[in-house]
Amino acid sequence: MSHLRTSLALALITASVSCHTPAVGAEPTPLKCEIGPLSKNFGRSNWLVYACDDGHSLVVVSDQGNPAMPFYFIFAWKDDAYQLHGEGTGDKKATQAAFDELSKLDKADIEGLVHEAQSKGAK
Average pLDDT, stretch 6-17? Predict the structure, then answer.
């Protein structure tokens, strides 16, 4: 994916993803997921992995040439657990294959990807 397409995808994801603030009655705080990316393969397709600024959450965006494009998954950190969500209009077989693989990741696996993306983004 070109830098421009990646930026557009991340802008849409950032606009659509929010996390809950601890204050009662407070508006959700936008979650920025721009740290990285890592190139990974899930479901036999290439994906870009970005860590989010909450230090926990993770976004997986379809990479150039991925039949799932446009599509993204997010591992959202909520109530001390990860919730996996996906959205997009790409090839359903490709997105399902990636979902099946991503849904098998445990907390340690996800946190490892977060740390790996954070290290990649720090360079």
Answer: 46
Question: Is-cis flag, bond preceding 30, omega within 30?
Answer: no
User: What pTM value is reported for the model?
Assistant: 0.79
Contact 56, 79 (CB under 8 A): no
**Cis, bond preceding 67 (omega within 30 deg of 0):** no
Q: What span, in angstroms and rounded, lies between the C-alpha atoms of 90 and 63?
A: 11
- Amino acid sitting at position 60: V
At 50 the three-state DSSP class reads: strand
Residue given tokens 């397409």 in the structure block? 5
Count of domains forming the chain: 1
Q: How far is CA 11 from the centre of its chain?
A: 12
Domain extent at residue 114: 3-121
